[in-house]
Amino acid sequence: MSEPLPHLIEEIIEQSSQDILSNDVTTALAQADDKALALLLESLPIDERLALWETIAAKRKLGVLIEMRSDPREVLIENTDANLWQTFFIDIEAEELLELADSLPSALLEQAYAAMDKVQQAYFAQANEYTEEQIGHWGTHEFLSLPINAKVRDGLRLIRREMPRHCDLIFLTNRSGQFSEAVPIALLHAQPEHVPLVDIALDDINTIMDTESCLIASKQVQLSGFGALPIVDENQKLIGRLDVTTAAELSFEEYERQLMAGAGMDEDEDLFSPVRKSSQNRAIWLGINLLTAFLASAFIGMFEATLQQVVALAVLMPVVASMGGIAGSQTLTLIIRGLALNQVTPANVGALLGKELKVGGLNGVIWAIVIGAVAVAWFGDPMLGVVIGLAILLNIIAAATAGIFVPVLLDKLKIDPALSGSVILTTVTDIVGFVAFLGLGTLFLL
Amino acid sequence: MSEPLPHLIEEIIEQSSQDILSNDVTTALAQADDKALALLLESLPIDERLALWETIAAKRKLGVLIEMRSDPREVLIENTDANLWQTFFIDIEAEELLELADSLPSALLEQAYAAMDKVQQAYFAQANEYTEEQIGHWGTHEFLSLPINAKVRDGLRLIRREMPRHCDLIFLTNRSGQFSEAVPIALLHAQPEHVPLVDIALDDINTIMDTESCLIASKQVQLSGFGALPIVDENQKLIGRLDVTTAAELSFEEYERQLMAGAGMDEDEDLFSPVRKSSQNRAIWLGINLLTAFLASAFIGMFEATLQQVVALAVLMPVVASMGGIAGSQTLTLIIRGLALNQVTPANVGALLGKELKVGGLNGVIWAIVIGAVAVAWFGDPMLGVVIGLAILLNIIAAATAGIFVPVLLDKLKIDPALSGSVILTTVTDIVGFVAFLGLGTLFLL
To answer: Do B284 and B415 fall into the same domain?
Structure first.
């Protein structure tokens, strides 16, 4: 069972300084599956991680590495005795090597490739004709298929011999290897043995295109009600299948990618990555943000004279910017979700903009009044209330507009809105907010 | 197949003004499954959504409603002819009613409940003993089970009669209905008929506790390699099962919830919700944000005299606050993911803090130098460079600390860090940034 074994983290950290693990811990580790060990290793600081790695049996190490994220995995790969790899690679399969490929130094990758038989090598080569974003890269080759003229008896013979996980369909293919139909295994039991399989085949089974994105393909399988769906190429040739467990793993990864992208990181980020590496990973995002912050400052700088005379403007500036940022991020989040589900299209963007502008207008007026009143009460200047109220209204409306157009345009340019949408949006709302507030202040308060 | 039919959105919007849909569109709609129609309805502005709803056959409407999110669904429920419900509810099952329960007015809920037979009513009542966050609420009752003394022949007879989706196991229960073991259906075919099922049962199948959270239970099923796992109560009584499709749906909902929570919305938010409702939904979040923004302003207000004399401080203020916010959100995101995977525990928080402080220190020094240099070049005042550099360094270190402690404390208090973590964090980094920058400015620049 793939429990993350969080209760072991403390004991291992304590015990690893004594160079020996207690029997309890050793037993728990031996009983844990590869996924649980992978999660546990990722949860440990580097020294403890390496110490635990030493205690794991050599024959389990490859399985554990496969389950880990790239960054924490690389730390272990670098610290694994070079002589061990030969043993690891004895029975390695194409699918396992594909999981590891990104983290392996090229010499080890070649060694692993050479250790596989011709069939696995061919699978490996086929997978690498696709990018990691295409489902063709991740399809598996454990499936049941029969010629199109096979009978129920052939089907029964096949399932008695082997039964891959999540297998509720037998795929029928023609002589050129093209996928034709699928037969639910459940139907075999209630049929006479001489019935042709095509007679009980489903006529509306969905196939997945090899070039489809992993996210859409995974969703297709997970909502299909079947354990797996066939993957075909443009000639309808059956090249593999995608089962629900692989689909779930790909979905988790995609979800993590989105979550981490919102903060400019990737899903392979290690909890305990070395300080220098971690600083580098994050520096780009901080740098981009710095440019946008200086841009906002440059706009503020245009109003230095005003700020000097009405210092209340400097005090209240963050309020205007932040209300715009929050309002915009709400629209942005709604549109990002809509784009991901194909629910936002050129046809309804206009209607969406109309609705968001109305929501923004209503919220803008309400908050303009509230904030204006607070400003008047605080600084005793009614005109300041009018100025900040107008600036808030303008900025919330600008936020609604940017919240729609920024993600739609990014999506059109094939840039992930989850990654860069929020930086661009807050740049817009910062600048509009500062310029509106300080500009109106210059007009009405000097 | 559940395509979202995005290409239809435009045609429907155009054609619905003419009160008649073209044959092409009607055919496409008839062929689409319930999920696809649900996504399509959600993608349409209210008027077009209601117009399309009218054209959908009465016998499909319940199925489509079940697939929709609550908010867009409620719009349709309010606009559905009261007489139709009687027909909708004829064959309704407990699981369907559970999906709808939140959106139905209580009179309709009672009507639906009364229309179900005793068995379904009992399932409905059992599910409602759990909260929506507990997996017991969502377990299904379509599974295969046999008494513990059953033989292979009984198993074969059972699967010839019925075969629920994602069913690769037969559950064995004792006389009190307690779950005992599970038999892989694939093994039945290769066994003599008189073999007792217990002889070929798995001894390490995982059960799911009825009170387990939906997210953890779903992950357990999705990574188990089985099509479904049994759900048991505290007495080990078999109360249902969770299959991979239901698990995938629960996971999607949880992802959406997290994504939307980051902007203070919930996953049921309608793309085209009525303006007043939408404004209300978002107002709370804007209000909370406003309080934190005014709090930051209050701290700035303490330095009015300084700002009046050194206006450059007002110009550069946003840079200090925003660098802290970004650095903090990176740590926060990493910790939120770690908490979700049970990888962050009291045992390694100390080590994580140490690492993040080092990363923050290194990045802080680098960016302090960069930003200090820009400030000197811009305003020609070396002391200003020192002041902003120190403020940046302090704020990035504060951000790393808050990025760890805010989510860990929220998690301990059972508050979702994905919802409120970022607001609290940026409040901290805003205040620390402004106070450090303006405070140091007061000390060194006046």
So the answer is: yes
Domain assignment present for residue B332? The answer is yes
Q: Which of A310, A315, A358 to mutate to test the interface with B (most CBs of B within 10 A)?
A: A315
DSSP string covering B287-336: HHHHHHHHHHHHHHHTTHHHHHH-HHHHHHHHHHHHHHHHHHHHHHHHHH
pLDDT above 90: residue A315: yes
Indicate which of B342, B357, B420 best probes the interface with A, i.e. most A CBs within 10 Å of its own CB.
B342
Of A209, A239, A261, the one marking the end of a domain is A261
The residue range of the domain holding A300 is: 275-445
What pLDDT does A408 receive? 97
- Indicate if A199 and A124 belong to the same structural domain: no
Q: Domain check: are A213 and A70 in the same one? A: no
- Do residue A1 and residue B206 have CB atoms under 8 angstroms apart? yes
**Would you call A244 and B222 a contact, using CB atoms and an 8 Å cutoff?**
yes
Report which of B403, B235, B313, B252 is spatially closest to residue A220, judged by C-alpha positions. Answer: B252
Size of interface A-B (CB pairs under 8 A): 337
Q: Cβ A337–B220 below 8 Å, yes or no?
A: no
Q: What is the CATH number of the domain that holds B230?
A: 3.10.580.10
Secondary structure letter of residue B194 according to DSSP: T
Within B116-210, where are the H helices?
118-127, 152-161, 185-188
Domain end (from B95, B127, B159): B127
Q: Is residue A384 part of a domain?
A: yes
Beta bridge partners of B178: B237
Same domain for B289 and B216: no
Residues A201 and A281 grouped into a single domain: no
* pLDDT greater than 70 at residue B248: yes
Domain count within chain A: 3
Using an 8 Å Cβ cutoff, are B371 and B379 in contact?
no
ipTM of the complex: 0.90
- Residue of B286, B331, B437 to mutate, interface with A, max A Cβ within 10 Å: B286
Residues A294, A245 share a domain = no
Q: Do B318 and A430 touch (CB under 8 A)?
A: yes
Cβ B259–A1 below 8 Å, yes or no? no
Contacts of B42 in chain A (CB under 8 A): 343
* pTM of the predicted model as reported, rounded to 2 decimal places: 0.90
* Contact (CB<8Å) A345/B6: yes
CB contact set of B143 (below 8 Å; sequence gap of 6+): B164, B167, B171, B228, B230, B240, B241
Cα separation of A267 and A270, whole Å? 9
pLDDT interval class at B187 (50, 70, 90): confident
| Whether residue B417 sits in one domain with residue B294 | yes
Whether A36 is in a domain gets the answer: yes
Are A180 and A95 contained in the same domain?
no
Residue B139 maps to a domain: no
Minimal CA separation from A345 to chain B, in Å: 7
